[in-house]
Design goal:
Blueprint lengths: L11 E3 L6 E3 L7 E3 L6 E3 L16 H51 L4 H32 L19 H10 L1
Antiparallel strand pairs: 1-2, 3-4
Helix pairs in contact: 1-2
Length: 175
């Protein structure tokens, strides 16, 4: 007796526009085309197969998730930019050290020529760059650490809170 293997069930997916049922086309294995609205989309990741049923995600939850992702992306970009400014300030400080060393060596060996004077001018420029990049990095760090929530304008109302004695009396009633 030979067992005929059953063909694997073709997964179905929900159309993102009309909610109709979409299935894989044999000639394009990653492309889904809705027979109702002709919307084209790709197969979702294996961890999220669509069942054809609409999900119960409210609009407020979707907006909150989008806002949280936007805020997280903004903070990451602020931190990344601040780190670039820190690196630039470090390069300026190292440049200051190198130019100072080169100025001292040149003046010892040859004396004051236009070259060490140019080194000193570039030292001034590097000092300004280190200050500028350092202050920008500090400002971005403060901005990234700042709270997104505004300070409350009114004092909190604690009058509706109790002292917890009610719970103690409830425990006495259990005896």
């Amino acid at each position: 007796m030979t067992d005929v293997p059953a063909e694997p069930a073709t997964p179905t997916y929900a159309c993102p526009q009309c909610g109709g049922t979409m299935s894989l086309s044999p000639d394009r294995p990653n492309l889904l085309i809705c027979p109702t609205c002709q919307c084209e989309s790709f197969v979702p990741d294996a961890e999220e197969p669509a069942t054809g049923e609409p999900t119960e995600v409210s609009r407020d939850d979707a907006v909150d998730v989008t806002r949280i992702r936007r805020l997280a992306t903004e903070r990451r970009s602020l931190n990344r930019t601040a780190s670039y400014f820190i690196v630039a300030a470090g390069v300026c400080v190292v440049g200051i050290g190198q130019l100072t060393w080169m100025t001292i060596q040149h003046v010892r060996v040859i004396g004051w020529t236009p070259r060490p004077i140019g080194y000193l001018l570039f030292i001034v420029l590097a000092l300004w760059g280190a200050w500028h990049f350092g202050s920008r990095a500090a400002a971005l760090h403060r901005e990234a650490k700042a709270s997104v929530l505004p300070e409350p304008t009114t004092t909190p109302d604690f009058s509706t809170l109790d002292d917890g004695s009610k719970h103690w009396k409830n425990l006495e009633d259990v005896r």
